[in-house]
Amino acid sequence: MGDAYADIPRHGDNYAKAIAVCINSKQCEAEGKQVMCPSYKVTGNPNLSTGGRVRLLKAALSGDDFQTKLFEPEIVQALQSCLSCKGCKRECENNVDMPLIKAEFMAQHRARHGTSLRSYIIGNLPRLLFDYPALGKLIRLRNSSPLLRRIGARLTKFAADADLPQPVKHKFKKPSNLPQRPDAKHKVVLFIDTFTRYFEPEIAYAAISLLDHLGCSIDILESQQKEAPFCCGRTYLSQGMIDEAHDQAQRLVSALLPHVRAGKTVIGLEASCVLGLRDDAKALRLGEELTEVASATFLLEEYLARELKGAELPQLSSDAPAAFIHGHCHQKAVGAMKAVRRLLKAFSAPDFQIMDTGCCGMAGTYGLEVENRELSLEVARHSLLPALESTEKGLIVANGFSCRQQINTLTKRRAVHLAEYLNGYL
């Protein structure tokens, strides 16, 4: 029957308890430099703040007709507008995890209304890219044809005016000459996420070269030849495909565990994927093996800033351009921007600046979706685009795949990963 004292709704069981963590302090609606909540920041609509979404969900779950109330348009819109930035998980006093609350909401919505074609494509993207190599040609054809853009918008609900990310012709391939240093102090296993593998493999090659330059012994997590590459499950989780996300995360954990027990550190290049393994996967009940792997998993910048602290590092060349750093929301959510700052100082990067750019608005596929496209652009115009106007003579560094896509599309400038910047100017 809930708990009136603790403000727990009558229905929803553990889901209601997760929502009731909110204490209605309205920190999520405060003015300031916090990450949360991008959609509230640009609209001022209290229903689009973390606390506002909680209030709507509590009201729906408190009535006997909750199974109907939970899916009313006002609540669907409020949850749909969440960019899953994870700012609330870090900045809220009680660590309300709205992205996970949204994922479960979407799972319930799927159970009630079925899976849309767009959700199927987004969730299964890692598998589709593996099974259908020609998918890249189809996307390039769609992006080049106004007619196909319009037809695609009707069929899939991807916004016609948005460029879909295009897989490259040659995906990542494990180098045959990886440096194996049995006596090396730093032994790592590199997890190549779906987006790096199929869309920007040059980032993985840059990271390998950088780690090699710094004396690391490197291994690459690779599946068997006829098996799909490993995936953290984030694309599935983002669409409320909980069972599929569980299976992918379990498969990844099982593959990483022997490396971790052999004393290697797991390094990831995409903040969302690392956070998915270190944080979101804990909700999937994967047990102690996940805890063991998660505790040994770091972003590239986190690992280097920690392990190379106090070491004499090579300095960046004098012709290295000024770097303007845009932080991915998930980097900010785990405090990794401090590691970026320490690392750039250690390499004596010239004139670098970590910009106050807020959220880019792309948030995975959020900015590609018809119903979210305009809000995505509003979020980008709020802080990101004004900040980038003053960086014409510098290099934009952004470690998030979706951030780079948003920047590339809206400014026609190529943003690079930190690994590319450091490796390119050592």
TrEMBL record:
<feature type="domain" description="4Fe-4S ferredoxin-type">
    <location>
        <begin position="21"/>
        <end position="96"/>
    </location>
</feature>
<dbReference type="InterPro" id="IPR017900">
    <property type="entry name" value="4Fe4S_Fe_S_CS"/>
</dbReference>
<dbReference type="GO" id="GO:0051539">
    <property type="term" value="F:4 iron, 4 sulfur cluster binding"/>
</dbReference>
<keyword id="KW-0411">Iron-sulfur</keyword>
<feature type="domain" description="Cysteine-rich">
    <location>
        <begin position="339"/>
        <end position="407"/>
    </location>
</feature>
<dbReference type="Pfam" id="PF02754">
    <property type="entry name" value="CCG"/>
</dbReference>
<protein>
    <submittedName>
        <fullName>Ferredoxin-like protein</fullName>
    </submittedName>
</protein>
<dbReference type="GO" id="GO:0046872">
    <property type="term" value="F:metal ion binding"/>
</dbReference>
<keyword id="KW-0677">Repeat</keyword>
<dbReference type="Pfam" id="PF13183">
    <property type="entry name" value="Fer4_8"/>
</dbReference>
<keyword id="KW-0479">Metal-binding</keyword>
<keyword id="KW-0408">Iron</keyword>
<dbReference type="GO" id="GO:0016491">
    <property type="term" value="F:oxidoreductase activity"/>
</dbReference>
<keyword id="KW-0004">4Fe-4S</keyword>
<dbReference type="InterPro" id="IPR017896">
    <property type="entry name" value="4Fe4S_Fe-S-bd"/>
</dbReference>
<dbReference type="InterPro" id="IPR004017">
    <property type="entry name" value="Cys_rich_dom"/>
</dbReference>
